[in-house]
Amino acid sequence: MILPIYAYGQPVLRKKASDIDAQYPDLNALIDNMFETMYDSNGIGLAAPQIGLSIRLFLVDGSEIEDINPKGFKEVFINPVIEEEFGTEWEFEEGCLSIPDVRAHVKRKGELTIRYFDRNWNEHTKTFNGMAARIIQHEYDHIEGVLFTDRISPLKRNMLKRRMEGISKGRVNVDYKMKFPKK
Q: Which of 84, 116, 133, 157 has the fewest C-beta atoms under 10 angstroms from its C-beta?
């Protein structure tokens, strides 16, 4: 089932999300619906707050990205904790399904170690680098109530302010379902 993406301005996007346990209702169906929603909107990552749920869950699929390591990178992260971010900081243009038509260069560390549960509740501690690390950091920010636009300069953010306010008022043209803040 394709779910609506919550647009910039929705309060859930600014909340720090809560851990869940293995008894979370219909978790596998939720994960399947999140993947379907992400693919329908041409995304490479989706966090639960982006569909209105303030829980510590996100998923990624970078398997179509040519230079990504590991190859076939597709993962579900439940209750993740970034243990360490390290390596050379690098800048790359990012976008977000919740803030369509807005892109900006964001600096992030090149590597990270993260502890999380997969969809079968197996615990992992893994180190990722490059684009895989960047995608994880972007989605992890969502469960912390942080948006990629928080990581750009105040000047650039101010330049984007009018466009972002328009998004929060529903003035955006996308080919996927969105849920906008109530007026």
A: 84
Determine whether 14 is exposed, middle or buried from the number of CB atoms within 10 Å of its CB (0-12, 13-18, 19+): middle
Q: Where are the domains of the chain?
A: 5-179
Q: Which helix (H) or strand (E) holds 92?
A: strand 74-96
Q: Which two tokens stand for residue 82?
A: 């970034």
Residue 64's pLDDT is 86
Is the pLDDT at 161 greater than 80, yes or no? Answer: yes
Residues 100 and 92: beta-carbon distance below 8 Å: no
64, 75, 111, 139: the catalytic one is 139
Secondary structure element (H or E) that encloses residue 105, with its range: strand 99-117
Tell me the CATH class for 5-179.
alpha beta
SS3 content of the chain, % helix, strand, coil (to 5): 30, 35, 35
Question: In this predicted model, what pLDDT tens digit does every residue of 60-112 receive, in sequence order?
Answer: 999 888 788 778 899 999 999 999 999 999 999 999 999 999 999 999 999 99
> Considering only CA atoms, which of 12, 21, 51, 11 is closest in space to residue 178?
51
139 part of the active site: yes
